[in-house]
């Protein structure tokens, strides 16, 4: 076989050189991204990698996910077999499985044989599924997918072909431990001559070798790049909440946000290589679902295309040729798409490789707002109102206490009051939500909690500003708020709005303050659990569905207190909608969408209201003032407001107080 | 070529309250804003800058803290900001104010030819709408008030054509340059500052011209130069309205009653037009 070895060495070296060059070209571009630290907390990161990558946690939760799980593990195991195959090809006299002690050799031979069969089975299932039960996302049926599946299938067939012909020749020691190859040998090769068997072995060996190297070289150019990047991507996954993205430093001469692909952090670029095009994100995106131009998968795809196109130029300090933000084309994200996002986090919740769509979208929003002052017209008023009067409507701050006109409310006093009740703009100014504020205050009193408010001095927490990319003004407001909390000795805060909650708790932490922030849902849950509230039955709330708000659920993983509270009041758990818990469907108001027109496609709040109405509820329970407004609108749009009501959890509970 | 915008820093009137006892306005602690009629004036200047490459100067007369508003104008794209501040300028009515502003514009025009001066139609605190016209008269500029569209600026013929928004109609007027234009809010949607511009404005210089620089006769400026004086500011008493009918239980009757009353008071006419 000496002639063969020389050719193989040449082929091998060429293939590996090409593969290394391709990988180098791709990964070099990742280094164009801005520095960010994804090497902290290695223990946790390693655990994430084991759990999510090797455990395939998010993959298996979907139809046919188990098939991928199987293929993944077959792949890992066969990687050993293939490494041995290549090394044996290069150094046949030195490296071979058969040089292992018999026990180990036979065990491995058995494992490789069976696993190859499983891999072949998984590939067949994957092909049949793509042909016969097309998944909702067409990208799974791309040419790319079929090419790679075919290559794997050929690889497996070559494996069996090679071993079967060796068994038939009687030169495979482990023959009796390779059931599938053995079967193939007796079924297909029993009558063959020694010459033709030797020819066959040679043929399958080369087929295996060439396809393996072809496969390797195809990876970097296809979505199957994820085979190389998905595992590290799980290691580098953000340890932060969905959208607590890094602050910006406001120094002269810097650019803000991301308007060109090399302004993303390197992990954002690495993400784009890791997308498996599985479509989970877009299947769960409320804007894609309602026919809007935003598709989270395509955002990631566009970033990748843009990087591949501009990266080599930018690396040479040349001008980019394809705009990152502009008219929608492959490699360019449209402004419309950027503004449609509700930052609901549904995409990130399901992505099996932890790609971070929301921070990328907000990165681009930051650029539009901060560098170009370009945003949907409605936002001008919003920004100016917030800057001038610290609330979205531009209402005079004095009116912040209007909700308390008919009750007695005390101001927060340092050292005397324990909790600040941070009412929030919606709770203070919006007529419907003021009733929720009253309900919360009633519960606080009933539980004998020491609480007070800031009244007219309360300022907006800045949630919408931050999600809309107006980081400059957010930064100022966050600092002002934190200073006020410090000056007034405020350490414990109760909020009514999940957006205030998440902002004060998660975003403000980036400013070095640890506030003890409690959402009224958590508080109610605790009070009920510990018997801190005397309840008296619910009145007639009828069939109740519960809506999980994104910023309470996905952002802060609060799902159970509201359910337990409802069970305590009504005697039964709420009815679940089709989308619930971490799979909840946004009301349409997050991410600053509350302040914008929704003119493209079906309106999100309507889609969600319709989903709720499918359960034939009498009451829809929410825990967020935005969701409240959205459902109220939805019920009016559907003309059912006289038979279905929306209540905040606080109202449900306050109504049941003795 | 220079375009000049005059702005005024005013108390945020939505946040001004009246003292329930004396009926006077309480101004303490009320935040200041750029007069909302002046932001479209600045925007219009900036649009002329974008279109013709003019330089934009913004001037304001007021106490030293007016600098904040001028810096906002710089952040939006004005090239130069002049603050006219001196105790001697204080207490001015529209006559004395327009005197100082006109003199300042005169000084600026010595260095660079002025194409137009753009002001807001009026301020939300004084509500007189006299300062713009006052400046035009003193400088001998064409006076174009209540403009909602600058249609054409012909530099070679030194003419400007604008559309004025009057009650129920528009008027298209052409006038020679230099001209003073006062604009209505509908003229445009003001822009929002970018962050680099804000950062630049933070340490940009606002030029201070006090009366040592301006050197105006004491009798023509400030309180002394004012023809009118404010004696008292108060909210007028408003007669309490009365509730007619029972809108909650008999909305149709209540609506009819309301219409009858409005017709009777000549506010509404039922005649077909
Ligand atoms: S955050 Fe929500 S709206 Fe935005 S892209 Fe993801 S799923 Fe879509
Ligand atoms: S971004 Fe994640 S969820 Fe979306 S298609 Fe890619 S891998 Fe799948």
What string, H for helix and E for strand, traces the elements of chain B in order?
EEEEEHEHEHEHEEEEHEHH
Per DSSP E runs of 2 or more residues, the count of β-strands of chain A stands at 7
- Computed Rg of chain B: 22 Å
CATH architecture annotation of the largest domain in chain B:
3-Layer(aba) Sandwich
Radius of gyration of chain A: 30 Å
Residue share in β-strands of chain A: under 5%
The small-molecule ligands in this entry are:
iron/sulfur cluster
CA distance, first residue to last residue of chain A: 91 Å
The pair of chains with the biggest contact is: A-B, 22 and 17 residues
Q: How many beta-strand segments of chain B?
A: 13
Q: Low-confidence stretches of chain B at least 5 residues in length (pLDDT < 50)?
A: none
* SSE-based structural type of chain B: alpha/beta
Contiguous helical run count of chain A: 27
Description:
The complex is a heterodimer of chains A (658) and B (273). Chain A is built from 27 helices and 7 strands. Chain A has 658 residues and is mainly α. Chain A folds into 3 domains: 3-235, Fumarate Reductase Cytochrome B subunit (Up-down Bundle); 261-371, Fumarate Reductase Iron-sulfur Protein, Chain B, domain 2 (Orthogonal Bundle), CATH 1.10.1060; 380-654, no CATH class. The relative contact order of chain A is 0.08. With 273 residues, chain B is an alpha/beta fold. Chain B has 2 domains: 2-220, Rossmann fold; 240-273. Chain B has 7 helices and 13 strands. In chain B, the strands form 3 sheets. Chain B has a 9-stranded mixed β-sheet, with helices on both faces. In chain B, helix 2 runs antiparallel to helix 5 and helix 3 (94-111) crosses helix 4 (131-139). Chain B starts with a strand and ends in a 9-residue tail after the last helix. Classes of the chains: A mainly alpha (658), B alpha/beta (273). The interface between A and B is medium-sized, with 22 and 17 residues. The structure holds iron/sulfur cluster (2 copies). Residues 284-287, 294, 296, 341-347, 357-358 of chain A line the site of one iron/sulfur cluster. One iron/sulfur cluster (SF4) binds next to helix 11 and helix 13 of chain A.
